[in-house]
Amino acid sequence: MKVAAISNVLASNVLKESTDTELVDACHTWRQHLRVSDAYVSGGSIENAFIETVMCGRTQETVPENSGTFPTTDTCMHVLLADGEFEEVRDGGTSDGRDRAFVMIEIRRVSYRRAFFSTAEVYIGTCPDSAQCGDIVVVVLGFRAPLVLRPQ
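RE: above sequence
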């Protein structure tokens, strides 16, 4: 079992009817609170860990083969973190925006009534929007997702 105290919580303020621009703005706000120079605890870059977090691991690199078509981490990063207009490039040509639409649907699903958190140990994730600094994130073997507990 791993345990870490939440040191930073940022509510998304995302509603079901939020626009794509509002979703991207929420991701930009969350990203500003990352120490991008840090490597992530489990290896790799903190930005890749951020994308995996906000996409709930639903990227081409993380889903099992034959699970469907998912955007790459780089595509997700471009959709969510790049400034300016997004233009998808797929197989040498511009696509119809399927990846952008998929990313927006996932972000809307993941961020609705959720908050982004980080810990002093540089763990990051999403949690219920009722989470507070000092709450404890617990990873329990056999559970599908970490738990957020409030010490009494």
